[in-house]
Design the sequence.
């Protein structure tokens, strides 16, 4: 798999986009990133971003600034949230959601962010308690990141940063240490709902791997509620990444649109093909998903399947061929 569709950054360009002298940790990672075209993290890379594209309208005028430095595969951004008089190295790192829904503080410092990066836990939507982080990372698609092991060694040996043992604690500490970011970004819901009072969502049920909880949600009306559309899409995405064709089947039975589009106009089928989830591909095709669908780059499920091991790609392509034949017949 090639890198994300962002221009190759330079030290000058990244520094200019960041808006401050580049912290050594980021400058060092840039050298690491440019040394080899293969991806080191499926969910992150350094990138030159226009901060104006990230700020709300109208932008805040209180002296605090966003210093952007990276993106994930969904087009969401990572930035330092800098207060006057603070250094970027000691300022919190924030996640600016491409859909303007999940903006949040995710780490107290760049060093803590890199502890998440070593786990592919830089994306808050995927954060969960990990029994075995390496097994979960492989499950989530790390076969697509040839330099992942190299990144983990590099962070430990060069910067003394080990993979976070509990990513949710980093997120919780960050939110407590740097309150107000969601309000600053124009969201009215800054005060978090206490965990005990928070309604169970599809994502919560999936993260807990709780099939009974998931079944209870399917028995309600959340799946068909327009207000829950973003959560339903996220739940379907997480279920596919985890290879949970059983949950995808139940969602489809309960009314999930098999042609639901995710980031970059990937259908659920395209997403399943990208991650090599043969069972999910089969279930989606059986539910009527279009085998000819393309994303905003014109990529087909056949093409995306080739990012996996040859036998996985072949199995997916055979399912697509049979589905096309059935439609033609």
Sequence:
């Amino acid at each position: 798999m090639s890198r994300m569709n962002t221009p190759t950054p330079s030290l000058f360009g990244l520094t200019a986009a960041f808006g401050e002298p580049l912290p050594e940790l980021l400058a060092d990672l840039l050298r690491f990133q440019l040394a080899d075209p293969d991806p080191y993290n499926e969910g992150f890379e350094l990138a030159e971003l226009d901060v104006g594209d990230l700020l709300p309208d109208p932008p805040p005028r209180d002296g605090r600034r966003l210093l952007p430095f990276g993106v994930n595969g969904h087009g969401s951004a990572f930035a330092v949230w800098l207060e006057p008089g603070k250094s970027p190295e000691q300022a919190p790192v924030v996640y600016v959601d491409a859909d303007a829904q999940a903006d949040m503080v995710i780490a107290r410092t760049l060093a803590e962010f890199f502890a998440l990066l070593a786990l592919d836990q830089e994306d808050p939507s995927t954060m969960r308690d990990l029994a075995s982080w390496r097994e979960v990372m492989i499950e989530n698609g790390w076969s697509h990141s040839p330099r992942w092991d190299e990144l983990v060694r590099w962070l430990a040996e060069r910067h003394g940063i080990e993979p976070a043992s509990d990513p949710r604690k980093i997120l919780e500490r960050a939110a407590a240490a740097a309150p107000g970011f969601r309000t600053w970004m124009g969201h009215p819901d800054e005060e978090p709902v206490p965990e005990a009072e928070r309604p169970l969502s599809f994502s919560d049920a999936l993260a807990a791997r709780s099939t009974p909880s998931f079944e209870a949600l399917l028995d309600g009306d959340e799946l068909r509620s327009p207000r829950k559309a973003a959560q339903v899409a996220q739940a379907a995405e997480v279920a596919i990444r985890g290879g949970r064709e059983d949950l995808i089947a139940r969602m489809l039975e309960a009314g999930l649109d098999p042609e639901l589009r995710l980031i970059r106009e990937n259908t659920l089928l395209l997403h399943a093909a990208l991650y090599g989830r043969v069972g999910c591909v089969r279930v989606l095709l059986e539910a009527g998903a279009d085998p000819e669908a393309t994303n905003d780059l014109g990529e087909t499920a056949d093409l995306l399947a080739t990012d996996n091991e040859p036998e996985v790609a072949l199995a997916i392509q055979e399912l697509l061929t049979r589905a096309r034949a059935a439609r033609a017949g």
User: Anything to note?
Assistant: The longest helix spans residues 310-328. DSSP finds 15 helices and five strands in the chain.
